[in-house]
Amino acid sequence: MSISQDQLVRITILIRKQDSISHEDFHTYWSTSHPKIWLSVPIVREKIVKYSQFHVDHKFKEGMEGKLPFAGYDGGAEMWARSVEDLMSVFTNEEYLKIVMPDEQMFLKREEAVMMVGYDVPRWVDGKDV
């Protein structure tokens, strides 16, 4: 399946925190300080339509250990753009590489991040088939 012109492209990046910081410090920094740095790069505001973070609830995860299989990640970042080219232009941008990457390396393990790129296909919204 190819992406139609009216679909947004989504990238989901699963991330792990640096071992040197606590879960609480990771989630606090990532949710408050990092977005300011990320959004300070002009190409991000130009090319990214939506940016969202998914924070793992570690207390819930620990309480369910052995009952459900959990992925070994601390969170996920999701970004939507109008095209794969727009997404890639952000991640290869000189300012992004100079400003955002060093910040990320302070709190997450970039080398262990995994990505999925594709598009959403809603099937159920607000109690209705779509």
UniProtKB/TrEMBL annotation:
<protein>
    <recommendedName>
        <fullName>EthD domain-containing protein</fullName>
    </recommendedName>
</protein>
<dbReference type="InterPro" id="IPR011008">
    <property type="entry name" value="Dimeric_a/b-barrel"/>
</dbReference>
<dbReference type="Pfam" id="PF07110">
    <property type="entry name" value="EthD"/>
</dbReference>
<dbReference type="GO" id="GO:0016491">
    <property type="term" value="F:oxidoreductase activity"/>
</dbReference>
<dbReference type="InterPro" id="IPR009799">
    <property type="entry name" value="EthD_dom"/>
</dbReference>
<comment type="similarity">
    <text>Belongs to the tpcK family.</text>
</comment>
<feature type="domain" description="EthD">
    <location>
        <begin position="19"/>
        <end position="109"/>
    </location>
</feature>
